[in-house]
TrEMBL record:
GO terms for molecular function: GTP binding. This is AIG1-type G domain-containing protein. Belongs to the TRAFAC class TrmE-Era-EngA-EngB-Septin-like GTPase superfamily. AIG1/Toc34/Toc159-like paraseptin GTPase family. IAN subfamily. Residues 524-603, 667-774 are annotated as: Disordered. Keywords: Coiled coil, GTP-binding, Nucleotide-binding. InterPro entries: G_AIG1, GIMA/IAN/Toc, P-loop_NTPase. The keyword Protein biosynthesis does not apply. Residues 526-603 have a biased composition (Basic and acidic residues). Residues 235-431 form the AIG1-type G domain. PROSITE patterns: G_AIG1. Residues 432-467 form a coiled coil.
Length: 845
């Protein structure tokens, strides 16, 4: 059988709630009735009918919780323990209690299985079951056509909710109204788990009383047999029990009464001895008992032997002879001898007690001196025994007149007592009162022990609660101080980091400004050098032109001298060459001017591009500063949220622990009020439910931790992606810089080295920022680790408190078991006494 119930939540809503339990022998019919009431089909097959099935749905504007109780009389619930467990679970599933039981019965004649199921339900749920029951009769016809069996009609009369016919078109709203009417008649009383446990307790009490009645009948039958046996004996039989301290002459008195020497040995007075003889035509039975106040034998053993003598003198002794020795010191113990006999044999035993003084051969004045004046201790003892006394001279055993006088006094006492003897009923009544007194004392002692345990446990709980609160308070204070210290450190670090960043920013701006001035200065120098070079080139060309003209003039003069005839032709040629040269010079000049203008435009473009790059760098620097600021704000916000979350968690844990302590106190109080097995079963079930809730809470915490871990991983991945993106941008920017550096390789080499140095410093700054972020993340991880340690310590403290509570519960259970063992031991003792009494009677017969 499954150890847990099947719970199906169909439609939870905040409506008026009604808890119904459907019971009966036919599982399919119960499921059909449940489906009709909830207007839905069950998703469980017949395999699930050995456990309770709980379903919920909204019906007629009310939230109906319907629990199907498995057939208790069927073979699927084989043991009584399983039946009780499932019945208790059925009632427990209806929180806070059952509004009505819907008992499903067949329309025709009830089968043996139906009757067995009905008797089983009434036996388990007690007589209060009918006060909360409505009988449901499913039928294929309309309500007017339903025919009921005589047994069904008889049972319906006992049900307070009456009978409701479920026809082919069932009126569910009418059934709900019938339930409401039943609740109004009962003033809203519900059938609660406590009623179930009370019913089980009543059942156990009935069983116990039945067993007690059987034992009482057995004892009465045994007494009747003993009485019948006693009546068959001679009417003039006399049973005498000798009592007294060691050395008082009990054994000698028994020998004198029976007229035999050495019948009772003095050395055998440590246990009861029974002897019978015929004296003056009468059968006399004398029972010698151990000496009272004998130091060799404990009082408990002496009491057992005296108790044993009652059974040896069955059906009971006629007289108790308290033997005292004249001339012997009347001790303090002998003064209370009558009280001792009353404690052992009851107050009625005094009417069957007679004092017998040995030493009758002593002088009379010595005897009078022994008795003392009126009001002395010995005379008070004689008064308590009704002034019944006799003197014996055990030295004259053949003097039978003293024995005859003793028998006559005993007969006179018997006549006063109506001829009755001290019976076993009197002794059993005394034993019963004695046992009740012992049980009452033990109950009071157990009650005191329980009260001491409760006070001690409450004090321990209060002490642990105070200690836990102090530890939580101290831990909270320490955590607050740590938070404040860390906040101060973080603020100081952020302030120093801001100052350092501001100083570096100023240094970077100064460096950039100096670099711009150096670049403009270098550009001006390069422009001046370019102008100087151009001027020198022009001057050199003019000088070359001058030299060339001089050379040409000399050549021209020579040519004029040599070639006079060709002078005109040569002049024409020179003129053409001059024209070509001039054209070439003009063309070269224009090309140079164009090249110069183009270089100037390229220089301006590169200067503007350099300015744009510098502006882009400044923008990225501002963006980086903004991101750092946002990141710091984000970390501070996360730190505040973590602090707030930790405080809330600590408060929740404190409230949870206080609630847990209160629940354990209530649990202990319930255990103290009822130690029956069903209550223990209910507590165990509640403990299992609590364990399941704790496991669910543990799973929920693990799930939250896993989600938190995933969130941290996502943040780390995003942070890595951001870093990679920045690194990619930085690499792209470096590639662009590399291209620019290639373009400006000759003219801006020093500028590139400065930019490279700046980039290195920027990388150092980013590395430092990254290290700072990693350090901050480590601090957050340390905070989380400290939080987990605090939670672990709190859980360990809770487990310690739960273990202490379990130990107290085990101690209470041991006390209860000790009581039960003592009760069993007492019953065994009574049975042994009865068996011994029976054996002695048989041996005597």
């Amino acid at each position: 059988m499954s150890s847990s119930s099947i719970i199906v939540s169909v439609s939870p809503s905040e409506l008026q709630k009604i808890n119904l339990v459907v019971c009966g022998s036919d599982g399919s019919v119960k499921s059909s009735v449940s489906d009709l009431i909830l207007d839905q089909r069950s998703e469980f097959s017949a395999d699930s009918r050995s456990v309770c099935v709980r379903r919920e749905a909204e019906v007629c504007g009310r939230l109906i919780t319907l629990v199907e109780l498995p057939a208790l009389y069927s073979f699927q619930l084989s043991t009584e323990e399983e039946v009780m467990r499932e019945s208790l679970r059925c009632v427990s599933l209806c929180d806070p209690g059952v509004h009505a039981f819907l008992l499903v019965l067949a329309e025709g004649r009830l089968t043996d299985e139906d009757k067995g199921e009905l008797e089983k339900i009434q036996h388990i749920f007690s007589s209060r079951f009918t006060h909360h029951t409505i009988t449901i009769i499913p039928t294929e016809t309309q309500q007017e056509g339903a025919e009921l069996d005589e047994d069904t009609r008889t049972f319906n009369k006992t049900c307070r909710g009456g009978c409701y016919i479920f026809g082919s078109v069932p009126d569910v709203s009418g059934l709900i109204d019938r339930v409401q009417q039943l609740l109004m008649e009962k003033n809203g009383d519900l059938y609660t788990p406590q009623m179930f446990l009370d019913g089980q307790l009543e059942t156990q009490l009935r069983r116990y009383n039945s067993k007690v009645a059987e034992m009482t009948t057995t004892i009465q039958n045994l007494e009747m047999k003993i009485q019948t046996f006693s009546e068959g004996r001679r009417r003039d039989a006399l049973r005498i029990v000798l009592l007294g301290r060691k050395g008082s002459g009990k054994s000698a008195t028994g020998n004198t009464i029976l007229g035999k020497e050495n019948t009772f040995e003095h050395s055998s007075s440590c246990m009861c001895q029974k002897e019978t003889a015929e004296v003056n035509g009468r059968q006399i039975t004398v029972i010698d008992t151990p000496g009272l106040f004998d130091t060799r034998v404990g009082n408990v053993e002496i009491q057992k032997e005296i108790t044993k003598c009652i059974f040896m003198a069955a059906p009971g002794p006629h007289v108790f002879l308290l033997v005292l020795k004249v001339g012997q010191r009347f001790s303090e113990e002998e003064k209370g001898a009558v009280e001792i006999i009353q404690n052992i044999l009851g107050e009625e035993s005094v009417t069957y007690t007679m004092l017998l003084f040995t030493g009758g051969d002593l002088p009379k004045d010595m005897i009078f001196q022994y008795f003392g004046d009126p009001g002395s201790d010995i005379r008070n003892l004689i008064t308590k025994c009704g002034n019944r006394l006799h003197f014996f001279n055990n030295k004259q055993i053949r003097d039978r007149t003293q024995v005859t006088a003793l028998l006559e006094k005993i007969d006179s006492m018997l006549a006063v007592n109506g001829g009755s003897c001290y019976t076993n009923e009197m002794f059993q009544q005394v034993e019963k009162e004695h046992q009740e007194r012992i049980l009452k004392e033990k109950e009071e002692e157990i009650k005191r022990e329980k009260e001491e345990l409760r006070v001690r446990f409450e004090a321990e709980i209060e002490r642990m609660k105070t200690t836990l609160q102090e530890e939580i308070k101290y831990e909270r204070k320490r955590r607050e101080e740590e938070f404040k210290e860390r906040e101060h450190q973080l603020e100081e670090k952020h302030r120093l980091r801001g100052e350092e960043y501001e100083n570096r920013r100023k240094e970077d701006e100064k460096r950039i400004n100096d670099r711009e001035r150096a670049i403009f200065s270098q550009l001006e120098r390069q422009q001046a050098e370019f102008e100087r070079q151009r001027h020198e080139d022009q001057k050199r060309r003019e000088q070359e032109d001058e030299k060339r003209r001089e050379r040409e003039e000399r050549e021209e003069e020579k040519r004029r001298e040599r070639e006079t005839r060709e002078e005109e032709k040569r002049r024409e040629r020179e003129n053409r060459e001059e024209e070509k040269r001039r054209n070439r010079e003009e063309r070269e000049k224009r090309e140079w001017e164009e090249r110069r203008e183009k270089e100037r435009e390229e220089y301006k473009g590169k200067l503007e591009e350099l300015k744009r790059n510098l502006e882009e760098k400044e923008r990225k620097r501002r963006d980086l500063k903004q991101r750092i600021k946002l990141l710091e704000e984000k970390h501070m916000k996360e730190l505040e949220e973590l602090k707030h979350h930790l405080e809330i968690r600590i408060q929740k844990e404190v409230k949870t622990k206080e609630k847990l302590i209160e629940e354990h106190q209530e649990e202990l109080e319930r255990v103290r009020k009822s130690m029956e097995r069903q209550q223990a079963e209910f507590e165990r079930q509640r403990h299992e439910d609590k364990t399941i809730r704790e496991q669910e809470d543990e799973k929920r915490r693990e799930r939250e931790e896993r989600e938190e871990e995933k969130r941290r991983e996502r943040e780390e991945q995003e942070e890595e992606k951001r870093i990679e993106r920045e690194e990619q941008e930085r690499r792209e920017w470096e590639e662009r810089r590399e291209k620019e550096r290639e373009e400006y390789k000759g003219k801006l080499e020093e500028l590139n080295r400065n930019v490279k140095e700046e980039e290195r410093k920027r990388s150092d700054l980013e590395e430092k920022m990254k290290l700072s972020e990693e350090k901050h993340m480590k601090e957050l991880e340390e905070l989380e680790h400290l939080q987990k340690e605090l939670e672990s310590r709190i859980q360990q403290e809770v487990k310690t408190k739960e273990k202490l509570i379990e130990e107290h519960q085990e101690e209470i259970e041991r006390v209860r078991k000790s009581m039960e063992e003592k009760d069993l031991q007492l019953k065994k003792t009574m049975e042994e006494l009865e068996k011994r009494a029976g054996n002695d009677d048989c041996r005597y017969y």
